[in-house]
Amino acid sequence: MSQGKRRSRGGIPSSADDVAGNGLLNRRALLGGGLAFASAASAATVTGAAAEPLKDAPWSLETGAVTPVLQTPSRFEKNVVRTLSNPNNEMRTSHARTPHHLLDGTVTPNSLHFTINHSGIPDIDPAQHKLVIHGMVKQPLVFTLDTLSRYPLVTRMAFLECGGNSGAMFSNEPVQATAQGLHGLVSNAEWTGVPLSILLDEAGVDRSAKWLIAEGADSLALHRSVPVKKAYEDALVAIYQNGERLMPGNGYPMRLLLPGYQGNMNVKFLRRIKVVNEPAMSYYEARTYSQILPGGKAYRFHFLQEVKSFITNPSFGQALKGPGYYGISGIAYSGNGRIAKVMVSADGGTSWAEAALQEPVLPKAFTRFRMPWRWDGQPVVLQSRASDDAGNTQPTRAEFVAVRGQTKKPVASANAFPNQHYNGPTSWGVASDGSIKHVYA
Amino acid sequence: MSQGKRRSRGGIPSSADDVAGNGLLNRRALLGGGLAFASAASAATVTGAAAEPLKDAPWSLETGAVTPVLQTPSRFEKNVVRTLSNPNNEMRTSHARTPHHLLDGTVTPNSLHFTINHSGIPDIDPAQHKLVIHGMVKQPLVFTLDTLSRYPLVTRMAFLECGGNSGAMFSNEPVQATAQGLHGLVSNAEWTGVPLSILLDEAGVDRSAKWLIAEGADSLALHRSVPVKKAYEDALVAIYQNGERLMPGNGYPMRLLLPGYQGNMNVKFLRRIKVVNEPAMSYYEARTYSQILPGGKAYRFHFLQEVKSFITNPSFGQALKGPGYYGISGIAYSGNGRIAKVMVSADGGTSWAEAALQEPVLPKAFTRFRMPWRWDGQPVVLQSRASDDAGNTQPTRAEFVAVRGQTKKPVASANAFPNQHYNGPTSWGVASDGSIKHVYA
């Protein structure tokens, strides 16, 4: 591969196949058939010819294991788990992060969906649980899971992201952590539930009401204020997650789903919706998720999860095995709508190439992007930058921290949360030995 | 609800809201806002007013459970499991069926994806497993999971269905079983893998080759013949299932995925692809999945899973709780492409109404359909009939058995498999007490 040995400088593609610096290839290469790709891949990945049949492996010589009623992953995948911030369930918040660096596609399996619970996971009997809608309504209503299930259901993909996800990106020096450690508080699932608008219409919401107070059945009675407007836009009372009932940590038996809005507002174990005139100014909206700006003031409400993306492969925790072809891949999403475009750079933002987006591109849901890449073995900095169909683009990290600030001292670990709603890029520095570090670029 | 009390006769809608006999409503009702729907739902599902806050439930008064590294369903969902045909792993085939009557949406969670294994589930070390492509190729190739993972990946939804799914529908009398028992050998997942065409191009397939023999690493070395044409159309070597690595029972660490083709051809634990001129006429293609026709002849190859649908809610195993509004819902899919239309009947096929299809409607994948319905408490027969965008429509059961035959005696249980590739409708008879039976209509 003589092309692979030429090195681009200053963002100038080094060959006709390259579309940006340091070996980013035209996304058409993903369709196969291109000689540039084929031979690059061949050099990198084929270990030798084998006209003779393989010798049987041990597992091919004996009857396999019994079929279980519920499948679980192979014992060889035991590192594919959520990381816990509070494994002993002490009297504080428990975070469990999705291992994005070990996954592909767009669905987050229910077992690996991130969760944050502030007082453990309640053990709710669905036959006893009730949801009340009251306040400024003509007719207060009570629903059981059974009666709720008879209302029209809709199914949609949606990401959920904690407002504090990626908080370690506020560190003035890059925290060395995986995509799971940095960005594991976002996941994507297919949710099925009843449009909240139907329930509110049934109750007869007073036209002057502006807010809902949604409250959970956990022991903190976690509650958040939600604009009535959002409730009528696309809010659901979700009762299924990827086809089955909600996971206990994700709000079983019912939760509020506000596509594109801060995770904490998507109240779990939903037991009460009160229609009111004023927001509650509850603990989680007035204190925890009120973000302090550099001047000392705070955003009063910051509901929307802005357009964002990060590369999951290659990323910190992985290592490249020599030069050759690699597929760069990651996740993009926006609380505003659909992802319109993801640009990828291999030279720290000097030059950019457009990634292929996996169809279907759905609103307020993960979009998997892919970029073919021929690595020549020299140090590179990989970065992605997404735009949504409402015209928003991720700011650079420099642009972001100019407005939102950063710490004066490095943050100790990915478990620290200096601030919220980081939506700048993430940069992975690949050294010539193939090792990968988190860098700022 | 005076409208609900009028009964339609002979398929004539009973009111302006009705669009077909026995209370099928216009699918616009699913959008809410319609008075007909709202009051129907209200009468059926609201148990009373509650201006006062609810009393705290026990789980709201104490700290909840510890957060696990892998989430599992609530203990109240322990009936949501696969049913097993061979729980003691005797020396015969093991079937595990998806509980469709307890699920909603379109994704089948990995824990509940159906599996059929003929000699247990092999315990494969992914670091040792190899895939060989050989035969009529310029350059035989060997792939490990690592080298394979560097090829371009694509992600898509696809259903997988056993050719023997719904075999009990060949019984001359309806087998009383759930949608899981009758149709549980079909599931739907998001698969990520390498297009087989790229690997075949890399190996340099001889242009005169017509077939591939795909072989698994299970102890039977299960192998099937696949047309080269299909391999180039949309075949994948899949390595992720709903975001995570394949489940052991679904082919870990790699499997062939042939969207829309008989499940058994989607060879699991894939270890060898031999490019050849002639089909292998292997056990599973020449014997097991060769279907005997009434005249004594057999189809030689029957690869495609035809257009099909069934209602999952309401269905056998459930019971209606009195008259009022219900959401009829089910699954439709076709090996030919996208679902174009699903018609639903509540009077055993006399009159039909068009169901709403959940977006996005994806090719060769589950489409969830929904139909609003106001039950007046009289006996009805519910049935669905799907059409795909290639112009195929499910035959009636009478049309189907006229060509394919049925048993002379009733089949004893849903575990018997008199024949394959049933794609007619399934009819649920609802009695006036709300109980549901499987009927032929």
What would you say this structure looks like, in words?
The structure is a homodimer of 441-residue chains. The first copy, chain A, is of the alpha+beta class. Among the domains of chain A are: 117-176 and 185-288, Oxidoreductase, molybdopterin-binding domain (Sulfite Oxidase, Chain A, domain 2), CATH 3.90.420; 308-439, Immunoglobulin-like (Sandwich). Helices cover 12% and strands 28% of the residues of chain A. Chain A has eight helices and 24 strands. Chain A has helices at 2-5, 35-45, 145-148, 179-183, 196-203, 228-234, 283-288, 397-404, and strands at residues 18-20, 24-25, 83-84, 94-97, 115-117, 131-135, 141-143, 154-161, 186-195, 211-216, 223-227, 236-241, 244-245, 255-257, 270-276, 308-313, 324-333, 339-345, 353-354, 356-357, 367-375, 380-388, 427-430, 436-439. In chain A, the strands form six sheets. A five-stranded mixed sheet of chain A has the order 7-6-15-10-11. In chain A, strands 8, 9, 12, 13 and 14 form a five-stranded antiparallel sheet that branches. In chain A, strand 6 (131-135) and strand 7 (141-143) form a beta hairpin. Chain A starts with a helix and ends with a strand. The interface between A and B is large, with 133 and 133 residues.
Summarize the structure in short.
The first copy, chain A, has 441 residues and is α+β, with helices and mostly antiparallel strands.
Task: Assign the structural class of chain A, choosing from mainly alpha, mainly beta, alpha/beta, alpha+beta, or little secondary structure.
Answer: alpha+beta
Question: Which pair of protein chains has the largest interface, and what are the residue counts?
Answer: A-B, 133 and 133 residues
Q: What percent of the residues of chain A sit in helical stretches (DSSP H or I)?
A: 10-25%
Assembly classification: homodimer
What is the CATH superfamily label of one domain in chain A? Oxidoreductase, molybdopterin-binding domain
| Highest-level CATH class of one domain in chain A | Alpha Beta
* pLDDT < 50 runs, ≥5 residues of chain A: 1-14, 35-53
The beta-strand count of chain A equals 24
Biggest sheet overview of chain A: 5 strands, mixed
